């Protein structure tokens, strides 16, 4: 069996919705929807080993902490694990008063009653009933006519109504899902929902939740939006219904469908954290919420410590959050490639001079710090990286702010290391490459400063007098110049024949790295006019500059200049 040359023999294009005057494309979302987490139900029913009570409890507590106010806690009639967890949650009295728990049931009398049993006594609860309504399910699963399928819903609604009335300790609310809504005839879905509403008699003050699932995502998200707008416009007594979305991700557009569905008039979104759920998963609540956040809308869900959320979700689901998952994935704020690194580094630098809070860092749609992520992982270095990459890492890790021209000088050292190792370079690798390239904080070098003193002559010139180890042999040397740096340059020239001409010098205080307080950078030309860079790091800024000259001398020697 292979892919068909003519797939139209097997698959039909999804029909358009007849809604020429659709309004949703020009609407914008200005407020967050109501959120329902179905992690403990749709998510849980789709994992290899469904959660035990301890895991469900841990997940429940996480959802409460994040700020989710509506939580589908399970499918109580599925078995003892589910029922006991829900009953235990209720009996423990730990469900916060502002949180409403929800359970799912097929529209079958015994299952509905078990569902009410599981929640009886809780302050407030939603019983969520479903039955499939679309042609394939009617024909294949139920082998029933439209009217018979409609009757399943009506019968179930009557049992819900009666069970609720018989258990007055709880504030019961109702939810109905015409399962497979997205592949059903719209007018039939409306007819079934209207029939359920006729039984349950919702009002604007006590509305029913009508949840419209894309049980299997079968079309582009604009079609789902059309379906939602059509449904909202044509449902009688619309004010008595909260319209809820429940999208799946079979075509990879579950989040888009939910967003367009909100534009089309829905009030509520069901989904799972990081998109767990049947098959390709449910709509990811984290993504929808943070998409709103990046548009300046407070989603009402708090992902300030997203790594802790991921840790719990991964533990409970026993599924990893993909490294590229929007907002949460380990790599989603990381740039390896040179041009991205360059732009991000400039973006962060611009923020330091910018005088407002507006986020404008290229390639980063959100400030990772808002999600509790630090900036260290924003730029990582491998063979695809550029100067901005290692410069960022050296600055973050060691506090070194390499002059731009020195970055270019150091780049081939990093590139060589990345190519040789054939893997990502971590901060320690880059620091090692830097120390090797500029003979910084290493004993493995030709010229090694042991000690020195500086004095001023009567004519204003400076005298450098010190001990320098040359290939392991200590030598007392001295030289005179207009300043400390030039006196060290003169010393190296007079004592060892090293020709260096200083072109540029810069220094800065260090906030990171061992005990060092200052870094000095020296740009020189060697005997043949070639550029040579030196770097010195020391607690004392003057000594750092002396070290920078020796660093340049060592580099000159390595690169074949001025054999001493
Ligand atoms: C889209 C969704 O995610 S819906 C949620 C799905 N989640 C789950 O199914 C997880 C929990 N489910 C379970 O543990 C089990 O399915 C149970 C305990 C609820 C029921 O188990 P069983 O009694 O063995 O029934 P099963 O699930 O196999 O369903 C088959 C029967 O239910 C009927 N049925 C299916 N859905 C519905 C419904 N919504 N309303 C009424 N009847 C239904 C089918 O037509 C079939 O009937 P048949 O045996 O006469 O052909
Ligand atoms: C029960 C319903 C809401 C469901 O999970 C689905 O259709 O995907």
TrEMBL record:
Its family? Belongs to the alpha-IPM synthase/homocitrate synthase family. LeuA type 2 subfamily.
**Which ranges of the sequence are coiled-coil?**
none
What's the protein here called?
Answer: 2-isopropylmalate synthase
Q: What is its main location?
A: cytoplasm
Q: Which CDD domains does the entry link to? A: DRE_TIM_LeuA (cd07942)
Q: Which residue ranges are recorded for the region named Regulatory domain?
A: 441-564
Q: Which cofactor does it need?
A: Mg(2+)
- Keyword Nucleus carried by entry: no
Q: Explain the purpose of this protein.
A: Catalyzes the condensation of the acetyl group of acetyl-CoA with 3-methyl-2-oxobutanoate (2-ketoisovalerate) to form 3-carboxy-3-hydroxy-4-methylpentanoate (2-isopropylmalate).
Q: Identify the gene encoding this protein.
A: leuA
Give any Pfam family that matches. IPMS_D2
**InterPro entries named among the record's database cross-references:** 2-isopropylmalate_synth_dimer (IPR013709), AIPM/Hcit_synth_CS (IPR002034), Aldolase_TIM (IPR013785), IPM_Synthase (IPR005668), LeuA-like_post-cat (IPR054692), LeuA_allosteric_dom_sf (IPR036230), LeuA_N_DRE-TIM (IPR039371), PYR_CT (IPR000891)
Q: In which pathway does it act?
A: Amino-acid biosynthesis; L-leucine biosynthesis; L-leucine from 3-methyl-2-oxobutanoate: step 1/4
